[in-house]
Amino acid sequence: MAYEQYGAKATRFGFGEGLVELGEHDERIVVLGGDITGSVMTNLFKDRFPDRFFSMGIAEQNATTVAAGLALSGKIPFFASYGAFCALRNADQLRISVCYNEANVKIGGGHSGISVGPDGATHQVLEDMAFLRALPHMTLVVPCDYLEAKKATIAIGRMEGPAYIRFGREPVPSFTREDTPFRLGKAETFREGNDVAIIATGCMVWESLVAAEELAKEGIQARVVNVHTIKPIDTEAIAAAARECGAIVTAEEHQIMGGMGSAVAQVVVKNTPVPMEFVGVTDTFGGSGNPNELMKAFGLTSNDIYNSVKKVLARRAGEWNQVQAMTEVGFEGQHPAGYPKPGTVFPIEELIENDRKAAENAVA
Amino acid sequence: MPFTNERRTPEQLAEIATEIRRDIIRSLVEAKSGHSGGPLGSADIFAVLYMGGVMNHDPAHPHMPGRDRFILSAGHMCPVLYATLANAGFFPKSELLTLRKFGSRLQGHPGRDMMLPGIESSTGSLGQGLSIAVGMALSDKLLDHNGARVYSLTGDGELEEGSIWEAVMAAAHYKLDNFCMIVDNNDCQIDGRVTDVMNIYPLKEKFESFNFHVIMVDGHNHGALLAAFDEFKTVTGKPTCIIAKTYMGHGVSFMEDRYEWHGKPPSPEQAEEALKELAE
After folding, report:
1. Neighboring chain A residues of B134 at a CB cutoff of 8 Å
2. Candidates A62, A76, A135, partner chain B, best to mutate (most B CBs within 10 A)
3. CA of A56: which chain B residue's CA is closest?
4. Alpha-carbon gap: A254 to the closest alpha carbon of chain B (Å)
5. A316: how many CB neighbours lie within 10 A of its CB?
6. Nearest Cα residue in chain A from B121
7. Phi and psi (nearest 5°) for A207?
8. How many CB atoms lie within 10 A of CB A196?
9. How far apart are the C-alpha atoms of A147 and A126, rounded to whole Å?
10. Which residues of A touch B128 (CB under 8 A)?
11. Do residues B213 and B241 lie in contact, with contact meaning Cβ atoms separated by under 8 Å?
12. pTM for the whole thing?
């Protein structure tokens, strides 16, 4: 079936609404707040079930561990905050009190990726998946749109064991439907094709579908696979994509080191090694800006996926110097070329001048 | 025969504590690694908690609903917890000799995955056990309303962990009067005196300012410990912190109040000497 956009909504709403639905059917569901309940949408649960909501203040280490204590008492606690603070600041608590205990704790990591925008690098979590993937017993889910976020939230609430759902702040295209299949651990092929596989997660799934349409105009049929569950990863779907398509591009709003692409590469290398390219953030911190300009500057658009497909196909055809390709990844720890260099004075006069001219033109 | 859990005289509890100390020495010398000082110093607290009728537990049914729970936040002190659980009948005492061995249920720091009866949570990364206990107390008091109490013991050096104070804040915020925190106040940590490594004092005032009911007690006085736990059970509207003044290595003269004994086991000769002292 072809996927078409029918609206736009942030995945965080899917999380908040999924929580309420879970709460309606299971009294064991409790929610812990970390002061930003209106941002990560746990306020919906708080309003509906005030007796099962506990404010924990700005104290993520304690909130994570209290959640483990609640889980060891038979409850199903969800703790949500910004991913920067509930995947990494509390890393040791996740490792010991949640995962080593195999505690039935669910974490909602909001405002994930660079698309948080103006808040800047401190709040743009791009390293969470690398850590969460490495935790024994952890399930890690990254939904691609609002509806999938809701399904994923309900799914992790109904499974046993630690789980993390990664969602975003900004509206992203809605394109999955109620009847779109969703099963934890099972990747879904959203577009058939055998010339190349684009394996994507989160908001990059839509970008991949857009890129695939562009490629189709040139006669390149790309398979688009939505890997919403990063752990446990669907090795069968990935191995099949490598075998049947012969070249892979991964796309994620995360560092390319240790993220979904790395997980896919591990599967590919072990089964059917094929050339791969990785679309993601290349070993650099983010920065302030509006979400769209950041996604563009940091190379996270359908256009970047399109270019990577062309590159991986050229490599497969032997038209690319392999050594050159390795050095072009750009692990320099520097901002991408499209983002102002550190120390650059913001061109405020220029902007004021532009505004003045625009105003003059409007009058004229 | 395991000791039953009932109201006992201080003299009876002193005998049980000595037996716990002997088992700590026996398991540590066999393990050839592990922590001696803290476990020996807190044996009296454990004897009172588990065999003095303080906690509501049932070794035959370790998962009994509505039971009181104990979380050892200072996970490295597990030799005393293991020795106590074995003496209370949670598992055979012979298993104490497997401490820290390959595949043992008696992990170097408590591991819930090994399913040792009486171990309610994995602990060992300092500070976290206290938050786990707060979560459990929250569940018992505000969700299950089952009247159960949760006890958690921290070291005093452990209070240097910032997340301890997050947990303390939350326990007081939710008025968890079913929550009892015990500080093993021996003023020793690996690098030296707690006051030298990082001063945590004044403790009583700190906990009072966080809205805790604070009880200062001689951690080697069984009668005083019983009275402290009795007092905790009468407090309403706030959590309790029992600051138990102890001496690291108490009961073994050459270890007593010497921080060098924080993290090492006795040699076979030292163990023999220690057991001789503990036999008297």
Report:
1. 62, 65-66, 69
2. A62
3. B170
4. 28
5. 15
6. A101
7. -60, -35
8. 27
9. 23
10. 65, 92-93, 96-97
11. yes
12. 0.93
On whether any CB of chain A is under 8 Å from the CB of B146, the answer is no
Backbone φ, ψ for residue A171 (5° rounding): -60, 135
| CA quadruple A191, A193, A194, A196: dihedral sign | negative
What is the rounded CA–CA span in Å between residue B130 and residue B263? 21
Kindly give the confidence (pLDDT) of every residue in chain B, 280 residues in length, as a single tens digit, with 9 standing for 90 and above: 899 999 999 999 999 999 999 999 999 999 999 999 999 999 999 999 999 999 999 999 999 999 999 999 999 999 999 999 999 999 999 999 999 999 999 999 999 999 999 999 999 999 999 999 999 999 999 999 999 999 999 999 999 999 999 999 999 999 999 999 999 999 999 999 999 999 999 999 999 999 999 999 999 999 999 999 999 999 999 999 999 999 999 999 999 999 999 999 999 999 999 999 999 6
Task: Give domain limits for chain B.
Answer: 10-279
Nearest CB partner across the interface for B128, out of A56, A72, A96: A96
CA distance A127 to A281: 10
Residue position matching structure tokens 């003059």: A360
Pairing of strands A106-110, A76-82: parallel
- B152 at interface of A, judged by CB pairs closer than 8 A: no
- Out of A65, A73, A92, the one facing B140 most closely (by C-beta) is A73
Chain A residue with minimum CA distance to B133? A69
CB pairs under 8 A between A and B: 106
Q: Which of B224, B276, B279, B277 is nearest to B246 (CA)?
A: B224
Q: Do domains A9-174 and A188-322 have the same CATH topology?
A: yes
Strands B150-155, B179-185: pairing kind: parallel
Q: What is the ipTM of this complex?
A: 0.92
CATH level 2 (architecture), domain A9-174: 3-Layer(aba) Sandwich (3.40)
Question: Which amino acids of A are annotated catalytic?
Answer: 60
Amino acid in position A311: K
Give the nearest chain A residue to B66 (CA atoms): A73
B125 contacts chain A (CB < 8 A): yes
Q: Nearest Cβ partner of A69 from B124, B134, B174?
A: B134
Chain B nearest C-alpha distance from A131 (Å)? 18
Domain definitions of chain A by residue range: 9-174, 188-322
**Domain B10-279: CATH architecture, name and number where available:** 3-Layer(aba) Sandwich (3.40)
CB count, 10 Å around CB of B40? 31
CATH of domain A188-322: 3.40.50.920
Q: How far is B165 from chain A (nearest CA, A)?
A: 9
